[in-house]
Design brief:
about 0% strand, about 200 residues, mainly alpha, Endonuclease III, domain 1, 9 helices
Length: about 200
């Protein structure tokens, strides 16, 4: 049985994951698949997608305010300067996901983002991520037709790893590209399809 867009009580068609009301519906309707501005916003999305790996997005979304506080508003320079005391503080913070590998990855990725900016060969993290947006994306009618990876997310993963980023596998990078609106996987018929 396939699952296409769901029409809610408000008469609006949405992707099934965003049709149940509450926080997830709000995120679906106002944020997911929308472009962002600024290095911190891109770094936040990269970080949260890595922390989401193996967990539900609802868990990460509920903890997002705590993540923002714990990681200095995702200020890249501040996070890149985190030391062992910061690592200990983060591992003791019940407001976030306390996973040593993901905490370490965030600090590593902040340093890699600073290096990317300083190299000047691309327009920082934002420019690098945007450069991997496909010319033509998928047009899924059902949840089953939404890809988990793409040639672009695989290429992005390889390039980020080459530049010193970690926890940036092709599935996580595809989710990041979806969240940033670099690839539109809202289902055909969803009211957010084509809106960036």
């Amino acid at each position: 049985m396939s699952s296409g867009p769901v029409v809610g009580d408000d008469g609006v068609a949405r992707c099934p994951w965003g049709s149940g009301g509450g926080m997830m519906q709000e995120y679906h309707d106002t944020e997911w698949g929308t472009t962002v501005e600024g290095e911190s916003a891109y770094f936040e999305r990269l970080t949260l997608e890595a922390f989401q790996s193996g967990l539900s997005w609802a868990t990460i979304l509920r903890k997002r305010p705590a993540f923002r506080e714990a990681f200095a508003g995702f200020d890249v320079d501040a996070v890149a300067a985190f030391d062992d005391a910061d690592r200990a503080r983060l591992m003791a913070d019940a407001g976030i996901v306390r996973n040593r590998r993901k905490v370490d990855a965030t600090i590593t990725n902040a340093g890699a983002t600073v290096a990317l900016r300083e190299a000047g060969d691309v327009d920082g993290l934002a420019g690098l991520l945007r450069s991997f947006a496909p010319a033509v994306g998928p047009a899924p009618r059902t949840v089953e037709e939404v890809p988990a990876t793409s040639p672009e997310s695989l290429a992005l993963s390889k390039e980020l790893k080459r530049r010193g980023f970690v926890f940036v596998g092709p599935t996580t990078m595809h989710a990041l590209m979806e969240a940033l609106g670099l690839v539109d996987t809202h289902l055909l018929g969803c009211h957010r399809r084509g809106v960036r």
